[in-house]
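To: structure subgroup
Subject: Chain for Friday's discussion

All,

I'm putting the inputs and outputs inline so they're searchable in the archive.
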Amino acid sequence: MAAPGVLVRLTFLLLPLLFTCHRVSGFYVPGVAPRNFHQNTLVEIKAVKLTSSRTQLPYEYYSLPFCHPVNITYKSENLGEVLRGDRIVNTPFQVFMNSKKKCEVLCEVVLKTEESKLMAERIQEEYYVHLIADNLPVATRLEFYSNHEEEEKNKEKDVQFEHGYRLGFMDSNKFYLHNHLSFILYYHREETEENQEPTFRVVRFEVVPQSIKMADLKADKKGACTLPEAANSAPQEIDPTKENKLLFSYSVRWEESDIKWASRWDTYLTMSDVQIHWFSIINSVVVVFFLSGILSMIIIRTLRKDIANYNKEDDIEDTMEESGWKLVHGDVFRPPQYPMILSSLLGSGIQLFCMILIVIFVAMLGMLSPSSRGALMTTACFLFMFMGVFGGFSAGRLYRTLKGHRWKKGAFCTATLYPGVVFGVCFILNCFIWGKHSTGAVPFPTMVALLCMWFGISLPLVYLGYYFGFRKQPYDNPVRTNQIPRQIPEQRWYMNRFVGILMAGILPFGAMFIELFFIFSAIWENQFYYLFGFLFLVFIILVVSCSQISIVMVYFQLCAEDYRWWWRTFLVSGGSAFYVLIYAIFYFMNKLDIVEFIPSLLYFGYTALMVLSFWLLTGTIGFYAAYMFVRKIYAAVKID
């Protein structure tokens, strides 16, 4: 019972570190060097993809009839970028360091009827275009005033950004395209020695998209154009029923900034309100540790009284009639049904736990910077594969403790049960995405590479860990198991398994549901999430709350003389996953504007995998906490 106290002390020791964690976004991995530009050096503008929170289907940039360069060159992506749907490609924009352009025609395009219809569909589906300059994503500035009187000029403005820029907009059932882009790039002048050419670094990349009718741009034969005044210009309409002729143009403005290169991502990563995070974290810490402290005091006082009574030499029969948990000492360690499946699920839970803990901790230290695109997902995939040795070891040792004998079959079950479900669901969803020709579909070579990683890395490591875990001495149970099972008395209604899941899931979910909102927003609304310091503290709170709730529930169950706690503890400890599922449905209904079948299928398919993974994680945490608790209390009493 000392473990929760240790976790509490550990959490408060980490609090000073967490106060600065939202600023670690400026930390970069050694080897990711800044790029210095000289005056009039080309700053390449690349396109990443098109995204929409309404369809959840990313598309590559040239899936729409934008202006093409002479040679289209795609960047070779890492695993994480491919899984995210990124397809980074060059564009014909000519942007030079600290060189302004008032208005320049990019190209003239005649959209065929099919292309016009597709463009109108993408505008209606609210697609955003994502560009990058020097690996910085483009952002659209959103300004709103802090007071209500907007007419006064010297009012303080709060500035926020949204990622990318809108492809276009609708008005009175008409479609308008943003065909002119006003790029605003900020640079930081680097200190140089005398008589040396000054160097600059890009520290921010903004865009102001505009829809300007072709006739109003007044382009000449040299490729220059003139921007009309806002009051006198008409937007560029796209008629989906016919061909459309239009001009794509852009302008460039450079501004000097005091922001240093190491802090240039701060603007993008502080889009979420940090005060909301701190309020939710402090609220969760107070509630969880207050309730945990109360539960711990009650359990410890009750257990001390029980153990003292059980260990009295006098009136043994009377004391045995008073309480119930000692009465089942001969059956409490009786192996459950399907021990192979239970140990396999717990092995996958250990694999997930190790992977998530390392990823969050490393990301909290700034070593998975968003400047390294796809690094987070790539690291998570490889870590899950390599953590198979720990999952196999824990599953093998538990399987032997549960009197299992077929270790080879158990190892195969551990290596394939959970990953097989994930791969099967993703493959089915991938077939639907393939049908939409979206970049969100994992290419066939990547799927083959993932299969090779699964069977070439994860499966051998699981077998290796399982072999050594099965050979190791099983867990030493403090009491012997009777040959004849004890009859279980009729249980009260509140001891029902589903009621236990509902009761046990409230506290862990309540500790993390606000952070869950930001995570869902990052996944489904194409936002950056880099507040891993908060997430690490939430993870600690989740471990503590799951452990406490699991110990309380198993204590109540044993007092009711029900010794079938193995599976029940695993299921009940993962009860917060049920609330995550309910919250995901609520989020879909209230926050997202998805109406089509395939996007809805993708949302619920991937959400089901998230809920399954969360259930395995929390169930594993609760199971091992309850197992240590049960062994501890039965080792403390004298058994005749």
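Points worth raising on Friday:
The longest strand covers residues 244-256.
The two ends are 25 Å apart (CA to CA).

D.
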